Amino acid sequence: MSTATATATSAAAYQKCMMPACGATYDVGEVHTSCPACGALLDITYDWDRLPTPTSLRDFERKWSRRNEPLERSGVWRFRELLPFAPDEKIVSIGEGQTPLHPSVGVAAYVGMNPGRMLLQYEGMNPSGSFKDNGMTAAFTHAHMIGAQRAACASTGNTSASLALYCGMSRLMQAVIFIGSGKISYGKLSQALDYGALTMQITGDFDDAMQRVREVSKRLGIYLVNSVNPFRLEGQKTIMLRVLESLNWQMPDWICVPGGNLGNSSSFGKAFHELHKLGLIDRMPRIAIINAAGADTLYELYEKRGLRWNDGAPDTKIIDGYYAELDAASERADTIASAIEINRPVNLMKCLRALQCTGGVVREVTDQQILDAKSQVAANGLGCEPASAASVAGAKMLREEGVIDPDEQVVCVLTGHQLKDPTATVAYHSSDQNEFNRVLGSRGVNTATYANRAVQVENDLDAIVRAIQLNS
Ligand SMILES: *Cc1c(COP(=O)(O)O)cnc(C)c1O
Ligand SMILES: [Zn+2]
């Protein structure tokens, strides 16, 4: 790409405060995790008139014959005309986003959908095993654009695994990750350590780690890649582009996604809003965001207390009041789905905007429902971690309520790979009641509804043969 084009690109993309009342703009070359003028989140915004935008989503099919080129192979960057903030030569890609959309007859039956109407977008297939790579490649690219030497995040695990992988593979930056002292799954922690990230384990939970990493990054000038980073959300938009691509550019009726820090749901809303503005789609899907019952801030605020985006003038007293109640009760998020164990979702405002724009709904599901759904996803051949299965458990709930019709088309996003968190899975299937209780009992999980228990048998040929005949 020529220098002239690069300049034009950077000028047509800028950062903009998301709150209509402020609307301050900043160059993409600046680094902010919130609006310097008012403290709200920033969006990456484009002057589409000045950019070469596709006239039809089918234009992207041209790229399929060029999959030997790294940027066309990437499931994120082959859509870069729709996230045009970086010159090609600065893009750092490791082949993220090669993720499939699978129809599942078995999961459809479990959820109560007609055959063929339930599809699973398997983001566990990403290089670090979660959807986070979609966003990390974009944030990392921005960090590289502005010459960062170190990049940091607080993480329930997958963001740090992803950052550590990009740092290790590109050798462009050092990763500094903050984790809480409590729950982080070994699958994720092992990735960060193995990829060589500087790992800071602080006393406290995710919300504490998040608070600290913001302070530390500011003081030391470290580039922050948490989902307050607006560039990450640009990369995550492409998850929906791939869904549409797999559906031959037809819009599904529903997108179900787990809600943690609400980056995914926010980016999906932004993607659909932009596609609609560009005339590339003619209708929106509805987004269903699924909280875990033990970390249900969005559900509480949106469904119970009536908080709405309200065209950019949300009633923030509702939020302040709820957070004050959480503080007064010293209430901490608590769920087996550690990736969504978050009580103060940083992208709340953007998510409210996405809910308005897509006519979305929010539900909460228990850890029991999450683990049962997870086992049914796996029994149908796609392993996911507990948080991911919230999307399927939520779809089932919305089906039972009659909100989702059995003949609508539903896409559930499976956000992370099964091997991220084997502890919960093994406990669920364990025949050892003590092990089950130790890991799951304290979370109100009583029954391993779909347990597949190992058969205990003595080391004797005849006994083994008998046991197989008896059990198959
Ligand atoms: C980060 C994460 C989530 C939560 O996504 P948000 O965008 O923060 O709402 C859900 N599932 C998995 C596996 C994750 O890693
Ligand atoms: Zn502002």
Could you outline the blueprint of secondary structure elements for this entry?
Blueprint: H1 3-12, E1 13-17, E2 25-27, E3 42-46, H2 70-73, E4 101-103, H3 105-111, E5 118-122, H4 132-145, E6 150-154, H5 158-170, E7 174-179, H6 186-194, E8 198-201, H7 206-220, E9 223-224, H8 230-246, E10 254-258, H9 263-277, E11 286-292, H10 297-304, H11 316-328, H12 348-358, E12 361-365, H13 367-379, H14 386-400, E13 410-414, H15 422-429, H16 433-440, H17 461-471
Helix pairs in contact: 4-5, 4-8, 5-6, 8-9, 9-12, 13-14, 15-16
Pyridoxal-5'-phosphate is lined by residues 130, 132, 158, 227, 258-264, 339-340, 385, 387-388, 415-416.
Please give a quick description of this structure.
The chain is α/β, with parallel strands linked by helices and 472 residues long. The chain has 17 helices and 13 strands.
Description:
The chain has helices at 3-12, 70-73, 105-111, 132-145, 158-170, 186-194, 206-220, 230-246, 263-277, 297-304, 316-328, 348-358, 367-379, 386-400, 422-429, 433-440, 461-471, and strands spanning 13-17, 25-27, 42-46, 101-103, 118-122, 150-154, 174-179, 198-201, 223-224, 254-258, 286-292, 361-365, 410-414. With 472 residues, the protein is an alpha/beta fold. Among the domains are: 3-50, no CATH class; 101-128 and 232-423, 3-Layer(aba) Sandwich (Rossmann fold). A six-stranded mixed beta sheet has the order 4-5-13-10-11-12, sandwiched between helices. Strands 8-7-6-9 form a four-stranded parallel beta sheet. Helix 9 (263-277) crosses helix 12 and helix 13 packs across helix 14 (386-400). The longest helix has 17 residues, at 230-246. Zinc ion binds at residues 17, 19, 22, 24, 35, 37-38, 40.
